[in-house]
Specification:
Elements (H helix, E strand, L loop, with lengths): L2 H29 L7 H12 L17 H30 L3 H10 L2 H11 L11 H29 L5
Helix pairs in contact: 1-3, 1-6, 2-3, 3-4, 4-6
Length: 168
């Protein structure tokens, strides 16, 4: 397998796998009454972003966007795959062929910057959910989810390494 193709393939596999892990985590949390991001609202934000609007006072009050739930789920997985690409860009294909937990956790934790300082403010929740009734809880939930994402990056990379071993 050529290196570039292998890198893209592993990035997609690892990113989708890690995103699936946080989806399972979110489903588990919901069973205990802990709400998670409504991907329709993510899709609504992206739909408005494509129309030139970045910030909202409340994304829930913004006008709906056609196929927003589908768009949100697509974006959720695309973001996870992009973060896996970042992991491979930083630590290389060698890491993906022989993964260790540290780099995956580092990237997983590092990606919490995106929801805390980009998505939440853009949706109207403020920096680190500061405009919500439970900002500390929401911030800790985001951090925990991104730790789980880091573990998911590692697990998905281990699975990929076992399913698709290379000689070099």
């Amino acid at each position: 397998m050529r290196t570039a193709i292998e890198c893209v393939f592993r990035g997609i596999f690892i990113g989708a796998g890690a995103t699936l892990v946080i989806d399972v985590w979110a489903a588990l949390l919901r069973r205990f009454g802990v709400p998670s991001l409504n991907f329709g609202m993510l899709g609504r934000w992206i739909g408005h972003l494509l129309q030139g609007r970045l910030m909202h006072e409340s994304i829930a009050k913004a006008s709906p966007v056609r196929r927003e739930l589908w768009l949100g789920w697509l974006a959720h997985y695309a973001i996870g795959i992009s973060f896996a690409g970042l992991l491979l860009a930083i630590f290389g294909l060698g890491w993906a062929r022989s993964p260790t937990l540290g780099p995956a956790l580092l990237v997983g934790v590092g990606t919490v910057v995106s929801p805390l300082f980009i998505l939440q403010p853009a949706l109207g929740a403020g920096i680190a959910s500061s405009k919500t009734p439970t900002p500390v809880f929401n911030t800790l939930k985001s951090l925990t989810t991104h730790i789980v994402f880091g573990v998911g990056l590692f697990v998905a990379a281990v699975v990929a390494a076992r399913l698709f071993p290379t000689s070099g």
